[in-house]
Amino acid sequence: MPVEALAKAGLPRAKASKPAPLLIDFANLTVTRGDKSVLHGFSLQVKRGEHIALLGPNGSGKSTLVKLMTCEIYPQAGIRGTRFRLFGEEQWSLEDVRRRVGIVTLDMLQHLSHEITTREVTARDMVLSGFFNSLGLWPHHVVTAAQRRRARAILGFLGITHLANRPLSAMSSGEQRRALIGRALVHDPEALVLDEPTTSLDPGAVQEFRRVLSRLARMGKSVVLVTHNVADLVPEIERILLMKGGRLIADGPKARVLSSASLSRLFGKKLRLIRHRRHYDLVNG
């Protein structure tokens, strides 16, 4: 109802609400590894509910940025103008970050491969393990009835209820990946950070991942997709950031930022961007 109509109806006008704090508010951050500076004066702001994709070649600093977002590492202290805020706050507990941010990272995918080969972990176990910040359940974990109900709902949402009791070793790579995404959803996080989530997936599994990612984006959660593959992009992601050498070299709407020329510069070779109705492909020039 328009404001004028509210007044005519004799109803009080709603007070203007303050804008919600930014989900991510980084300014002038520097991260070093040994003698090497990985991120240089890095700044990034992401609104709550916003969907972004960060594209860049291997070694561009993408995974370091993910570790900042998930508080696995911290920026260099004592630099003037530095701002390092999550959810509008400069201080938070690691437990709070894990509850509010669902994470699927390349490191997790590598650990998942190890778990598959060393012990039996079912899809249900993988989802439930999100409550304990582990990969799979261990004998000392005590699972509540409410947690089991939550896991059943997530398995249903992801379309893998039929895999609940199946070991990950007996699943396709795409099914395993969906179980790992389910693990990230147990706390109903405000945001999802996905770092190279389609690594090693076949084309069919990539398509299934894109369908799941679109559903998650439409739920109103912020999606931060970190990738080097334009085929991962879903229509719901409208803001694209290009990263190279520890810096953002482009940031803006998908239609403006993505082009054959910009991606050729980003990856250092001649490439051609192909735009389909709902997705993109990148082929050699």
Salient structural properties:
285 residues, Rossmann fold, single chain, globular, alpha/beta
Descriptive overview:
There is one protein chain. The chain is α/β, with parallel strands linked by helices. The protein has a domain at 95-189: Rossmann fold. The protein contains ten helices and eleven strands. It has helices at 3-8, 62-69, 94-100, 106-118, 123-128, 145-157, 173-184, 203-218, 254-257, 260-267, and strands spanning 24-33, 36-46, 51-55, 83-86, 101-104, 191-195, 222-227, 239-244, 247-253, 271-275, 280-284. Strands 5-6-7-3-8-9 form a six-stranded mixed β-sheet, with helices on both faces. It has a three-stranded antiparallel β-sheet with strand order 2-1-4, covered by helices on one side. A hairpin with a 4-residue loop joins strand 10 (271-275) and strand 11 (280-284). Helix 7 runs parallel beside helix 8 (203-218).
Produce a short descriptive summary.
With 285 residues, the chain is an alpha/beta fold. It is 33% helix and 24% strand. It has helices at residues 3-8, 62-69, 94-100, 106-118, 123-128, 145-157, 173-184, 203-218, 254-257, 260-267; strands at 24-33, 36-46, 51-55, 83-86, 101-104, 191-195, 222-227, 239-244, 247-253, 271-275, 280-284.
Instruction: Please outline the major beta sheet.
Output: 6 strands, mixed
Strand content: 15-25%
Total number of helices: 10
Q: In percent, how helical is the residue content?
A: 25-40%
The CATH architecture name of the domain at 95-189 reads 3-Layer(aba) Sandwich
Number of strands: 11
Query: Strand order, biggest sheet?
Result: 5-6-7-3-8-9
| Spatial extent as radius of gyration | 21 Å
Tell me the name of the CATH homologous superfamily of the domain at 95-189: P-loop containing nucleotide triphosphate hydrolases
Q: How far apart lie the N and C ends?
A: 52 Å
CATH fold title of the domain at 95-189:
Rossmann fold
- Structural category is alpha/beta
Order of helices and strands: HEEEHEHEHHHHEHEEEHHEE
> Under the CATH scheme, which class of the domain at 95-189?
Alpha Beta
Overall mean pLDDT: 89
Parts with pLDDT < 50 across at least 5 consecutive residues: 1-16
Overall geometry: globular
